[in-house]
Amino acid sequence: MRQLFKILFLGLCAFLFSACQSHDKNTLKVGTIAGPETDLMQIAKAAAKKQFGLNIEIVEFTDYLEPNAALSDGSIDANMFQHQPYLDQQIKDRHYDLVAIGKTFIYPMGIYSSKYKSLSAVPVGATVALPNDPSNEGRALMLLQKAKLIKMKKEKGIYAMPEDIIENPKQLKFKELDAAQIARSLPDVDLSIINTNYAIPAGLVPKKDAIFLEGKDSPYANIIVIRKDELKDPRMKQLVAALQSDAVLKATQKIFKGQAIVAW
């Protein structure tokens, strides 16, 4: 009797394991940042199901640190929220074994102000809100340099920090904030450097409301990221195809109000 119970128990375990494997084989958990990019992933989810029979389970996060940590520990299978400079910095700082497998769109970062309508009107001593994560802060500072408000040490590039400024003729002061909070800080500072994925939920239209905006030459295309040991998984190519589908391209123009630039 005990032997029969053991056989039945092992058989049940094998069945449950097989069922789980079957489910996992046809499902990907993909991390996004809550907001427009999650809306975009919903379109990709439908495209993946229609084209490949692939199920995408969307996992929303609220800050930039969580999606790579979750991907690294296996809680999710892929993420779509960051650009290559940010991923490079995360790999350097946290030793993640992650890799980009495709590009989506450039969501241009802009300089916004509720007080001034042009860069020339910005006064001496103005306060500027910057994102506080390393690569986005460098990106914001490079945008200020492109706007000719500051000049940076050349060798620092996209990883520049405020202390790397070598010329600051308007004596700008910098307030470092979480990227998700900067749009809300707009009334409290003179200038805010805001990512498009946070500008749009705040009611801002980049091409209309920004007083200076990144162009098509931006190196900050968003990317699709997975663990390196999953590179041969055919589902990953299907995920990329879904995110680069005509349905997503069409939806992007609506969700991002024509502000997204195709990067593939």
Describe it.
Helix content is 38%, strand content 23%. It is an alpha/beta fold and 264 residues long. It has a 6-stranded mixed β-sheet with strand order 2-1-3-12-4-13, with helices on both faces. A 5-stranded mixed β-sheet has the order 9-6-10-5-11. Strands 7-8 form a two-stranded antiparallel sheet. Strand 1 (27-33), helix 2 (36-52) and strand 2 form a beta-alpha-beta unit. Helix 2 (36-52) packs across helix 8 (234-243) and helix 2 (36-52) runs antiparallel to helix 9 (246-255). It starts with a helix and ends with a strand. The model is unreliable at 14-23 (pLDDT under 50).
Instruction: Give the SSE order as H and E letters.
Output: HEHEHEHEEEHEEEEHHEEHHE
- Please report the distance between the alpha carbons of the first and last residues: 63 Å
How many strands in all? Answer: 13
Report the total helices: 9
Uncertain residue ranges: 14-23
Overall spatial form: globular
Structural class, by secondary structure, is alpha/beta
Largest sheet: 6 strands, mixed
